[in-house]
Amino acid sequence: MKMKRKRISDPSRIESLKELPRIEITWHDAASGDGTWWPLDHLRSQNRDGLIECQTLGYLVKMGPKAITVCQTRAEHGKLAHDWSIPRKWIKKIRVLR
What we know:
Layout: E1 22-30, H1 40-44, E2 51-63, E3 67-74, E4 80-87, E5 91-96
Antiparallel strand pairs: 1-2, 1-5, 2-3, 3-4
């Protein structure tokens, strides 16, 4: 059985914070070591390509041409906090949460 993909609509017309869709974004972020000195062959043998896969959960606030913005906290006084703008080129997938 094929699952239907839920289409994400542009949140720019949504006025109520309670109506903002909740999403999970899977994306790749840059990574760095802990500052330890390593030989070249050790660094080249690492399984990761210098990137870390991340998941961010939040309320979809904006779908811009270069980034998608989510906020992780909403309050009853009508304000949002803990915003993330993730470049579209870094995003692997977006899942709409219920």
